[in-house]
Amino acid sequence: MEVILMERIEKLGQMGDIVSVKPGFARNYLLPQKKALRATKANLAHFETERTQLEAENLKRREEAEQVSKSLEGMVVNLIRQAGESGQLYGSVNSRDMAEAVTAAGVTVGRHQIDLGTVIKALGLHKVRVQLHPEVAVTITTNVARSEEEAKVQIESGRVVSTEELRQAEEAAEAELEAVVEAVEQEEAAAAESEVAESATEETGATDGEETKQD
Q1: Residue 155 in 3-state DSSP?
Q2: Are strands 120-122 and 136-145 parallel, antiparallel or unpaired?
Q3: Which of 55, 57, 74, 113 has the largest CB neighbor count within 10 A?
Q4: How far is it, in rounded angstroms, from Cα 71 to Cα 138?
Q5: Phi/psi of residue 84, each to 5°?
């Protein structure tokens, strides 16, 4: 089936191109989404009369998408999920999950803009493409982990961590916290001792002064 593309379609063509596609792809996607029109003489004539306006509208949407893409560049979103020892998720992460995570991070996107390819079924760092406009896309990182602590270790190491590595990281963090608490307690104890010593010195000085006056 021949259709007129109403916008750029990756690996297919640019706005205004007449391309041949499978009937099912046209009927189930291109035509319902208004991304294309059947290549009839009437539609061709209609497109030519509307071309200037369509191109202007497309340019405006593209510029808006480019501004949004700047907010997404380098973004990492954490998704906490349950998983087995092998790292396989008890479930999966889909485009809706991703859209909600990105929106929660401050940039509103729809699930249809998440180009996931296939659902995520394992822990780790996954590159996900966000299609903001037919001509503007940006790749973000999805950090799927069992906990926030695991997510932190994964982003620092750049790989999936085992439960043993996570346990060691947690123990190290606890030891570091204990060391900080101990240091604070020692400082407080030293400060208290210093105050007691200063108070004793002041009392001794006052007593000596009274004795001198009496003499």
Answers
A1: helix
A2: unpaired
A3: 113
A4: 10
A5: -85, 180
Please name the helix (run of DSSP H) or strand (run of DSSP E) that holds residue 49, with its range, or none.
Answer: helix 41-72
Are 120 and 142 in contact by the 8 Å Cβ rule? The answer is yes
What does DSSP assign to residue 7? S
> What are the mean pLDDT values of the chain's consecutive 10-residue runs (215 residues total)?
91 92 93 93 92 93 95 94 90 94 94 91 94 94 92 82 58 74 80 72 59 54
Query: Cβ(166)–Cβ(149) under 8 Å?
Result: yes
The Cα 173–Cα 148 span in angstroms is: 13
DSSP 27: I
The pTM for the full model equals: 0.67
Give the closest residue to 78 by CA, choosing from 142, 139, 126: 142
CA distance 172 to 63: 47
Pairing of strands 18-20, 2-5: antiparallel
Report DSSP state, residue 29. Answer: I
Neighbours of 125 (CB within 10 A): 17
Indicate the CATH number for domain 2-72: 3.40.5.10
Q: What are phi and psi of 123, to 5 degrees?
A: -65, 160
Tell me, what DSSP letter sits at residue 107?
-
CATH number of 76-165: 3.10.430.100
Length of the chain measured in residues:
215
CB atoms within 10 A of CB 143: 19
